[in-house]
Amino acid sequence: MFRSIYKLSTHFNNRCVMGILSRGIAEKHPSMENYFKGKSFIVTGAGAGMGKVITGRLLGLDAHVFAIGRDIESLPCKAGQKMTRITVDIGDWESTYCKILEIGPVHGLVNNAGVAHIEPFLETTQHGWDDTLNVNSRGVVRASQAAAKNMISEKIKGSIVNVSSTISERAIPDHVSYCASKGALNQITRTMAIELGPHGIRTNNVNPTVVLTKMGKIAWSDPKKSGPIMDRIPLGRFAVPNDVANAVIFLLSDYSTMINGLNLYVDGGYMTS
């Protein structure tokens, strides 16, 4: 008798579990685009390259963007768009924190601002080293501190996306400060994921290979330089800014609510070789 009751109970529980799973699978999820309407996001380094494309994509999704850059003239400016332009040097510890804190609560932050000083190891300068680490690593910490503080104060379960690189893990010549800054960024992101996660704030990296921005096309135009990296990319091409923007939009959205502390490689398979 007890065995029959146990079997009946197990059968009933299994049916309940399967019913719940089936409903979860069948449940319609709102489109990713709808998530961004009426929400606010910060994009650093919004004046050029990937930052400008990411800013444009967010504006196209009807979000309000706080576009941050060193030069006000380089920042996007189109009538009718929900955008606030802010000038600040992300490498400046105090002004970065103060300017972003003044923005108030947002739903996401994209730490895209970055610099690269191309110097051989034996000729690396103090300026090149300090400027690269200040912007690419320290600046991310400071900007994120302010943005996260504002999110926590309003109990916003936001998303922070840091733009890292594949050469955070695969070194290349003449990039010692850049490689160091992006390697540090990977660990900064993991630490942020651990500490901000309990507040409902997710932190992830996007790690692209070479990106063909205007500057990227110039910097990697020499086949002798680009060839060895291209040969290791199974898809046979470098990234374009929209490839990176696609990954950023995904990590900002509610399509990635269980993703935290990730390195998302946008590299055509480069990291598999």
Automatic annotation (TrEMBL):
InterPro entries: L-xylulose/Carbonyl_redctase, NAD(P)-bd_dom_sf, Sc_DH/Rdtase_CS, SDR_fam
Coiled coil ranges: none
Keywords tagged on the record: NADP, Oxidoreductase
Record keyword Nucleus present: no
An example Gene Ontology biological process: glucose metabolic process
A GO term for molecular function: L-xylulose reductase (NADPH) activity
UniProt entry tagged with the keyword Oxidoreductase: yes
Annotated family: Belongs to the short-chain dehydrogenases/reductases (SDR) family.
Subunit record text: Homotetramer.
The name this protein goes by in its record: L-xylulose reductase
